Amino acid sequence: MRIDIVRPADLDPQDVTAWSALQQAAGLDSPFFSPHWTRACASVDGPDRKLAKVAVVRDDDGAAAFLPARLSPFSGQAVGAPLSDYQGAVTRDGFVLDVKAAVRAFGVGRLDFQNLFPGQTAFAKHVHGHASSLAIDLSQGFDAYAAERRTQTDILKDCAKRRRKLEREKGEVVFTAHSTVQADFDQLLVWKRAQYKASGQTDIFDAGWPLDLLKRLFIEPCGDLQARLFTLHAGGELAAAHLALCNGSVAHAWFIAHSEAFERYSPGVVLIADMLQWGSANGMRELDLGPGDYRFKLQLSNLKREVGHGYVGRPGPSTLVRAAAYSVRDAAEALPLGRASTLPGKAMRRLDLWRGLHGVWSLPR
Known about the structure:
This protein is of the alpha+beta class. The protein is built from twelve helices and 13 strands. The chain has two domains: 2-131 and 309-358, Aminopeptidase, CATH 3.40.630; 140-284, 3-Layer(aba) Sandwich (Aminopeptidase). The longest helix has 18 residues, at 182-199.
């Protein structure tokens, strides 16, 4: 086995083709496993431009695995973090990746992951906890999906009622798939940033490169990867917008926001319902809603995945620090402390968010 560490821009075209073929064969249809996601992240002026690398693992039969990571001298994390909702390696069926060997080849003390996709057996013993990620499976068609949802929830019926009410009170409702209207894209970002401010969350767009990445993928595809804008207008006004990251038949719900003027109609959820009907008729097999247990996700989803968080570490200070942080987190979450039990985990996630946005590491290897 040989491991080559390559910059995304320097990947041989044959390796890009092999990566895509392995991704398809492994059923890793999420756009975050595409070689074009890694290359797109490295094409904008952010941490990935200089720090993103790909471990290309080869055996006698050729390329057997691809593992992208953003590296510092001390640790690594997912390329595109925190915009990447899933992480993991793309491997040939039956090939067992030695992840510790990959970490050594990267030259870092440890490799962190936040949302490890199911089926990543090479990482299994390095997982320290799990969370739920929700998706909508449309492979049997919208009618079958809607019939199944009706046995569990009235959300689709409620969306239809809200859509009719929106049209009665505000004017004609128009759904647009794959909108190229720049003003609507810009408005989505204005709404999203206002959401971050109102909720006290970190505005990821302050870092600069996330905005550049969205603009890059909105304007033109990167291979078969593209950010596609879906919009809902009422009475000629933009009521909601949804930027989805699309790769083949899978769309990943990425950024969604709506106008406060239309809030009582729940236009964001109405927009998703329209997306599902349109998508089912136009080759969309899945709309992945990503991690998080928001009420609308729970009601709309018919597919649940368990994603993991943890790290793969080599002996050294950076691994010891991460291990200590997880010890504190695990101990707190095991105690009946109410909201206080979640504080260490929140602190770790906030630190990882900062690292992802700014490419900052402060610990020696």
